């Protein structure tokens, strides 16, 4: 119900004319004419009275359901939010009038609502208290003795102004129960401030003088209410509100006119940091421990993943003796990565701002870590197999003014829980020393008997000499790995930026026991923590560590609450996908039944012994350009020894090689010309010298062509080229450019065709390999830019690297296309050439078939939704604005930047939709019938190559089917471990409650400790019950709501205390005997 009577626009409100006397100008009365004229122009959905009422049948209640279902066109023309539409057309004026009515006294009595005093004294009302009434000063102070943080309004005779309870005479007494006066009060400071959840309040206080004298308690100078702390921590963890923004919000709530309350920001920061730390200690049971806070061990405050295997907690007896087919159920999946957004400026130091508990939760111990790093001076930053040293070195390019350039972290790869002591600062990029120490730091908390699968995006470089580096770590974290118990992998998205060899040896799809782990889960914590990157950047080291610990703890708790539902969704999908993969594999096997057994034997032998031939690796490797050249040079040398006199000092092989070298120079200079057009005259590119050098090379070629290919000179003469033709545009006319008729009658020397054919074959092979490498580089560059380039300087540098990479892609693709066209000219038609034609759509990064299909379905869904929105607008008579959804689907392009040229495709800015479509056609798959681009097979179309491709495809299908089977089993095991982990936590809290010494703590303190432990025991029992229900209940259909969860109260830990009784401090009472305890917990 509204706190005011419903007002009609046509009926004026009665006002007291006497209140207008202070104004020297006439106050305009409310006019309805403009509003009514506006309403007449509207087209209401509901007909107005008088508009053919016989055509409409309206219910008294607009929300009453009817049996007449509207047609599809009628539904499309209706607003999505009918309640909002109805409010906007029918109720806005009434609400505005009601709000204005609320600014006056309205129906409030002019006398005091409590004591009934006269109207002259009843000029106060509370903004917070329920049940509005005007109060006199005495009653207002009396009723707010327990609510000193309420805001009071005072009626001036014309309007209300805000005042404070301190100004009204409220005095708060600390140290005594409510209503009891202190015999020896001591007046508190005049500027005492309470920071509450609704603002900042100046209050008058008295302290207990006896407590100050006898107990030597220091009087407070300011206070921060728990509600304000809880509100801040919630806003800080969930929407990532910064402390400054939260405090500014409190200031605005206190006074929205710009008058600042007393500044207590530094106090707020200090107390909130202390409270966060205390909550971390309290929630992990440190308040119940005999050794107290200082007895906290390394990583003890970290929340552990309830689904990951933990011997003694959630694994059965004898798990370490599981047969080979069950060993996938006892693998600890770990993901490692670095984030360069979590920087910290060179502010303060560890001595001036130490952490309150650094090393107790997720951040590793800073002092031994710092001492170790000071001893390592010869280790460089890690690069990748793709040779991205420039990219990775760029991580440390932006370290000026920063003492920390990022953090490295380890998480459980399947559930994304941050591991204990698994986060450490980076000082100069992703160096071996940093990542080794972070890895060893969290590994000491994992059982050494568990098998480990370690996922890292640059593991192909990091794992080299890893054992030697780990042996040199400090004794506190020194680690000895058994390589038989450890496998290394690259995340499924990052592996596209690696060489083909890495994609074979480090693919999670091909690792036995990995299930469908993708290794990319560590990116999700980075996404969460990015919201506080700007805030922690200007913190001291200790404050930053405490904040990160708090946020990692909140992240792990959210994952704990949602883990059962996550596993249920994965299980439903895995069962469905497993059946599909089994059917696909059976179909593929039936089609190749004569070879399937042999292929399976190769896979089994390789998995048993990795020294055997890899069934996933292609062995079809041809000769390189240098090898072909060397082969023909050796043949020419043998011919010369045999007495065959050469016709020229330059051999035929050297002639063809010189032609191809000049062709490469032409491609390079054409690329520089395009680059200069992009950069302008300021690009620092000089073409004159390079063109002069190329002209000299072409002149030498013409001399050689007069000897080897006279027909080429005749063809050049027929072209009649202008004199001002640039060198890079002059036709070189190799033997392949001369027709067969022209080659005859001495137009082309014998043997040149064979030499060019062999070299062109080698060119196709090397160009394709180089193109794959640059596409790998491109995938990694774009991933790096998307995740780490935020500042303008970093974004510009990353954009420059991307541009350089795209030019290389263009050069290699053009080299392949030239070589392929030459082969077609030499053979006579495309069918005689083993290499395939390279189309624009073929030049794209590697993607799995499942991703192609999934992305295609997403795009189709987006297109259908866009068409439906456009049709709705057209039916309403509104024009459809030109929009494009294509750029959103192109993952290889940056959505935040316009690209004028994409891999050599000229782009006209006047038609952005064509640009997006053309870019997608060049970079991206689109149709469901398309699969991985043929360029990744790296083979020619020969019978041996086709046979090998079939074997690799069958082996991958076999691996995919087995991985999904493993995924189903792993998910079932994880779902079973969750209740066991929660039961272990429940028992731990019960034990904490049992061990409380009531005599030592006292009744009041013991009651609070037992209450908290009992509540947490019930909490974990509820979590276990909900997890089991989530995994076993029937699947809820899409769009339907599931059963709402409730918190159940179980039997109290009541050996020492009942829920409805107070703790007795006597050692022997009716509730404290040991036999009852044993019986209750049996």
TrEMBL record:
Residues 69-79 have a biased composition (Low complexity). It comes from the Eukaryota. Residues 165-210 form the CxC2-like cysteine cluster KDZ transposase-associated domain. Pfam families: CxC2 (PF18803), KDZ (PF18758). Residues 55-79, 1060-1082 are annotated as: Disordered. This is CxC2 domain-containing protein. The lineage of its organism: Eukaryota, Fungi, Dikarya, Basidiomycota, Agaricomycotina. Residues 1063-1082 have a biased composition (Acidic residues). It comes from Mycena indigotica. Transmembrane segments: none annotated.
């Amino acid at each position: 119900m509204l706190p005011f009577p419903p007002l009609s626009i046509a009926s004026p409100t009665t006002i007291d004319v006497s209140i207008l006397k202070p104004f020297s100008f006439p106050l305009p009365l409310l006019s309805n004419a403009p509003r009514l004229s506006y309403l007449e122009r509207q087209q209401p959905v509901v007909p107005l009275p008088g508009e053919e009422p016989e055509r409409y049948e309206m219910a008294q209640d607009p929300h009453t359901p009817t049996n007449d279902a509207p047609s599809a066109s009628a539904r499309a023309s209706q607003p999505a939010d009918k309640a909002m539409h109805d409010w906007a057309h029918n109720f806005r004026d009434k609400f505005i009038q009601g709000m204005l009515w609320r600014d006056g006294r309205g129906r409030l009595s002019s006398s005091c609502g409590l004591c009934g005093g006269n109207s002259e004294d009843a000029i106060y009302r509370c903004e917070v208290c329920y049940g509005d009434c005007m109060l006199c000063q005495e009653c207002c102070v009396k009723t707010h003795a327990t609510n000193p943080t309420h805001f009071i309004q005072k009626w001036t005779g014309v309007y209300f102004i805000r005042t404070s309870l301190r100004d009204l005479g409220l005095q708060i007494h600390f140290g005594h129960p409510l209503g009891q006066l202190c015999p020896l009060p001591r007046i508190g400071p005049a500027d005492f401030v309470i920071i509450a959840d609704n603002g900042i309040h100046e209050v008058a206080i008295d302290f207990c003088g006896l407590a100050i004298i006898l107990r030597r308690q220091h009087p407070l100078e300011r206070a921060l209410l728990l509600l304000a702390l809880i509100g801040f921590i919630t806003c800080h963890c969930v929407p990532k509100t910064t402390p400054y923004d939260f405090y500014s919000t409190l200031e605005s709530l206190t006074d929205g006119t710009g008058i600042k309350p007393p500044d207590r920001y530094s106090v707020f920061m200090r107390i909130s940091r202390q409270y966060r730390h205390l909550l971390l200690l309290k929630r992990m049971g440190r308040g119940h421990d005999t050794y107290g806070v200082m007895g906290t061990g390394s990583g003890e405050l970290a929340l552990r993943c309830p689904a990951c295997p933990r011997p003694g907690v959630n694994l059965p007896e004898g798990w370490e003796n599981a047969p080979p087919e069950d060993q996938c159920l006892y693998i600890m999946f770990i993901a490692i990565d670095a984030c360069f957004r979590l920087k910290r400026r060179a502010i303060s130091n560890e001595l001036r701002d130490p952490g309150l508990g650094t090393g107790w939760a997720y951040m590793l111990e800073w002092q031994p870590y710092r001492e170790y790093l000071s001893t390592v001076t010869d280790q460089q930053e890690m690069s990748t197999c793709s040779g991205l040293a420039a990219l990775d070195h760029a991580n440390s390019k932006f370290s000026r003014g920063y003492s920390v350039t990022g953090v490295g972290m380890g998480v459980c790869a399947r559930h994304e829980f941050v591991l204990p002591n698994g986060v450490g600062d980076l000082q100069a990029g992703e160096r071996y020393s940093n990542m080794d120490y972070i890895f060893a730091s969290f590994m000491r908390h994992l059982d050494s008997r568990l098998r480990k699968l370690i996922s890292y995006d640059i593991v192909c470089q990091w794992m080299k000499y890893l054992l030697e580096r780990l042996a040199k770590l400090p004794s506190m974290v020194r680690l000895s790995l058994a390589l038989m118990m450890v496998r290394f992998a690259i995340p499924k998205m990052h592996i596209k930026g690696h060489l083909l060899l890495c994609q074979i040896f480090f693919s999670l799809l091909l690792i036995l026991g990995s299930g469908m782990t993708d290794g990319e889960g560590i990116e999700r914590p980075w996404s969460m923590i990015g919201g506080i990157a700007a805030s922690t950047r200007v913190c001291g080291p200790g404050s930053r560590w405490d904040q990160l610990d708090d946020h990692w703890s909140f992240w792990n708790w959210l994952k704990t609450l949602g883990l059962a539902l996550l596993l249920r969704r994965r299980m439903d999908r895995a069962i469905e996908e497993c059946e599909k993969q089994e059917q696909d594999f059976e179909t593929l096997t039936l089609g190749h039944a004569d070879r399937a057994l042999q292929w399976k034997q190769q896979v089994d032998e390789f998995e048993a012994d990795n020294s055997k031939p890899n069934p996933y690796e292609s062995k079809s490797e041809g000769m390189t350009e240098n090898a072909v050249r060397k082969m023909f040079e050796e043949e020419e040398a043998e011919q010369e020894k045999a007495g065959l006199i050469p016709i020229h000092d330059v051999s035929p092989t050297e002639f063809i090689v010189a032609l191809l070298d000049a062709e490469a120079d032409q491609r390079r200079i054409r690329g520089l010309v395009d680059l200069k057009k992009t950069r302008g005259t300021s690009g620092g590119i000089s073409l004159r010298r390079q063109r002069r050098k190329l002209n000299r090379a072409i002149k030498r070629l013409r001399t050689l062509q007069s000897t080897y290919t006279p027909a080429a000179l005749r063809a050049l003469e027929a072209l009649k080229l202008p004199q001002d033709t640039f060198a890079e545009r002059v036709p070189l006319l190799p033997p392949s450019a001369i027709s067969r008729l022209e080659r005859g009658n001495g137009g082309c020397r014998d043997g040149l065709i064979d030499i060019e054919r062999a070299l062109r074959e080698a060119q196709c092979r090397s160009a394709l390999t180089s193109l794959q490498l640059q596409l790998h580089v491109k995938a990694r560059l774009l991933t790096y830019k998307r995740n780490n380039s935020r500042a303008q300087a970093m974004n510009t540098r990353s954009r420059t690297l991307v541009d350089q990479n795209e030019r290389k892609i263009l050069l290699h693709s053009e080299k392949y296309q030239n070589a392929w066209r030459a082969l077609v000219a030499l053979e006579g038609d495309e069918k005689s050439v083993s290499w395939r034609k390279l189309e624009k759509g073929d030049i794209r990064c590697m993607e799995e078939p499942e991703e192609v299909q999934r992305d295609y379905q997403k795009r189709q869904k987006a297109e259908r939704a866009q068409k439906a929105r456009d049709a709705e607008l057209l039916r309403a008579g509104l024009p459809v604005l030109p929009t494009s959804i294509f750029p959103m689907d192109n993952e290889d392009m940056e959505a935040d930047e316009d690209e004028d040229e994409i891999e050599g495709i000229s782009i006209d800015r006047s038609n952005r939709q064509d640009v997006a479509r053309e870019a997608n056609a060049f970079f991206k798959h689109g149709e469901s019938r398309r699969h991985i681009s043929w360029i990744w097979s790296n083979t020619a179309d020969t019978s041996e190559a086709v046979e090998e491709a079939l074997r690799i495809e069958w082996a991958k299908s076999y691996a995919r089917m087995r991985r999904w089977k493993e995924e189903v089993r792993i998910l079932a095991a994880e779902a079973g471990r969750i209740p066991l982990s929660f039961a272990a936590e429940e028992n731990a809290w019960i034990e904490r409650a049992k061990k409380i010494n009531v005599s030592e703590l006292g009744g009041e303190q013991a009651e609070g400790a037992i209450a908290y432990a009992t509540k947490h025991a019930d909490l974990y029992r509820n979590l276990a019950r909900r997890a089991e229900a989530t995994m076993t209940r029937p699947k809820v259909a899409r769009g339907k709501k599931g059963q709402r969860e409730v918190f159940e109260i179980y039997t109290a830990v009541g050996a020492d205390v009942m829920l409805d009784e107070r703790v007795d401090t006597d050692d022997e009472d009716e509730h404290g005997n040991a036999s009852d305890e044993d019986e209750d917990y049996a």
